[in-house]
Amino acid sequence: MKTINIHQAKTHLSRLVDEACKGEPFVIAKAGKPMVKVTALTAPVGTEVKRIGFMAGQISVPADFDHMGEEEIDGLFSGGK
Fold it and tell me: CATH assignment of 2-77?
């Protein structure tokens, strides 16, 4: 793992971050003393994150979905009549 002084890190931050994202972490040092380690996050990015429609084609909704349990619900709200 390479060590970069803080001045070089400020000058070349974009390139260094790109390298870290590709799996090449580095250490930023101040006056020769290591201060921080920069590594890539493991969070999914871009097209890897998919939430809406993730179960498409795996479930089905019954045709009478809007009326399921209608009698029981009516009974609960009308005092059991």
Answer: 3.40.1620.10
